[in-house]
Specification:
Number of helices: 0
Distance between the termini: 36 Å
Strand order of the largest sheet: 2-10-9-4-5-6
Number of strands: 10
Helix content: under 10%
Largest sheet: 6 strands, mixed
Radius of gyration: 13 Å
Shape: globular
Strand content: over 45%
Length: 114
């Protein structure tokens, strides 16, 4: 399985971005998907997850600002991020939850300027 993340970029604090995640096979219809991020010098951490049944979880820092979703027709997972802050600067990855190590993609860089 290969994940391809896109949608990152440079944005000013307070701005918004929408990240997209595509898998090489139909995956999210039967597996919990998650968005992870890794800031420089820090471990990769789960930010948001969505189960096939629609159960959604966020870390506290993302609650109210990020929205995770899956398009069932295309099996594409999204992360809508708003009110971004410099602390959101990181490389964002998608994977299943729990993550499968060999499936990590290249990620997409999100840089928030303050």
């Amino acid at each position: 399985v290969q994940f391809t993340e896109s949608g990152g970029g440079l944005v000013q604090a307070g701005g918004s971005l929408r990240l997209s995640c595509e898998a090489s096979i139909s995956l999210f219809i039967a597996n919990t998907g998650g968005w992870y991020r890794q800031a420089p010098g820090e471990p990769r951490r789960l930010v948001a997850s969505i189960s096939p049944g629609g159960l959604i979880k966020y870390v506290d820092s993302a609650e109210g600002r990020f929205t995770i979703s899956v398009n069932d027709e295309t099996d594409t997972m999204y992360l809508q991020m708003s009110r971004l802050t410099a602390e959101d600067t990181a490389i964002y990855y998608c994977n299943t939850v729990p993550a499968t190590t060999s499936w990590w993609g290249q990620g997409t860089q999100v840089t928030v300027s303050s």
